[in-house]
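Ex. 9. Protein: Deoxyfructose oxidoreductase.
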Amino acid sequence: MSQKLKWGILGCASIARRSVIPGIQQSELNEVAAVASRDIGKAEQTADELNIPLAYGSYEDMLADPAIDVIYIPLPNHLHKEWTILAAEAGKHILCEKPLALNEAEAAEMAEAAAKNGVYLAEAFMYRYHPRYDRIKELIHTGAIGDIRGIRSAFTFNNAGDKGNVRYKKEWGGGSIYDIGCYPISAARLLLDQEPVAVTVQAFFSEEHGGVDMMASGLIEFDGPAALTFDCGMWTAFRNPLEIVGTEGIIEVPSAFVTPSAGTGNFYLITGGERQEIEVPHLNAYSLQADHLADAIINGSPLRFEPADAVRNMRVIDACLLSARERIRVTL
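Predicted structure tokens for Deoxyfructose oxidoreductase:
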């Protein structure tokens, strides 16, 4: 294996070009060696724009390249399972975009394929690798806000005018719960170190957008006094806050999931009527994510977030979608 892991990018999605590829290129242990598209012109254009050495006109050709160590998959959600399994069978380690799959069963199959072929599989929730979440968990565990009584979070944006967007194709895994509702769900599980016991979700399904959920609001119950209340949407103003409410104080994170620029990643601790700003370093969460995976591959160490975690997150997403469609409370 080369000094730096060589990554192949399976597709030219916006998230790859805008955030993940630059993040990998800025990381310490990785380099982007190739990009593939079913349209060779698109692959060559992306390679030229982002200084990537190789462009492939098919995904299969990239997987056949023995020089590629890791595959990043930013394809539409319905293609995650197929290409994760094919990459695993080709002996490639994998970083796959969130949500990992269309449902829990698919995610479990993908995790099994990675284990069977002896490769690492990670879900691309980049925010979890930023050290501010370690700091937040430290404050929680040391009792800075007392016992947690609730978590409130949201992730919304307005892209409703782009009617042809893949997010609005129901059969492709479109909708706000899949696309961004998965963030508050994963964050609550991370912060509480628990799995939910029940969910109740109300959603607005838009016929203008393929019948997908364009807005959803939910209650995620945990085994104890704390619960997550969240909303997510693709037809409303942008926001991505997180609030953790305790018996003795509150932690506020104004920009909880978007990779923070200098200063915007800071959060606030409110206790005794005083609001203290907690400064965090300006670090690229996409780079941190890539380096964590690379370190595990190079040293054979466990991932911080194993594929089983993604399977459990998909279980909650499944329940949220069922609850929204059937207008029922779903127990887990």
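Check your answer against this statement. The chain has a mean pLDDT of 96.
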